[in-house]
Amino acid sequence: xxxxxxxxxxxxxxxxxxxxxxxxxxxxxxxxxxxxxxxxxxxxxxxxxxxxxxxxxxxxxxxxxxxxxxxxxxxxxxxxxxxxxxxxxxxxxxxxxxxx
Length: 100
Description:
CATH 4.10.830.10; structural constituent of ribosome; 3 helices; mainly alpha; rRNA binding
């Protein structure tokens, strides 16, 4: 189980990212339409003035049950060993553990 503070920090980053998504998209679109370098730099400064944690690249996928930051499957939003345990218990529809 991940520390609760790390999970809360990640949720805070997600909220910030959702809040600033439209602003970031509009500034990037505006930057692509402008041709002069001075205007592009001014728009870039506006983009930089938004909080660091509002950037989508700073988000990290975590397991929805344990908060584990590594070995996550996007389809299930679960870490590998949780998927393995759930597959053994037949809790995931259509997933079977191979054996030979």
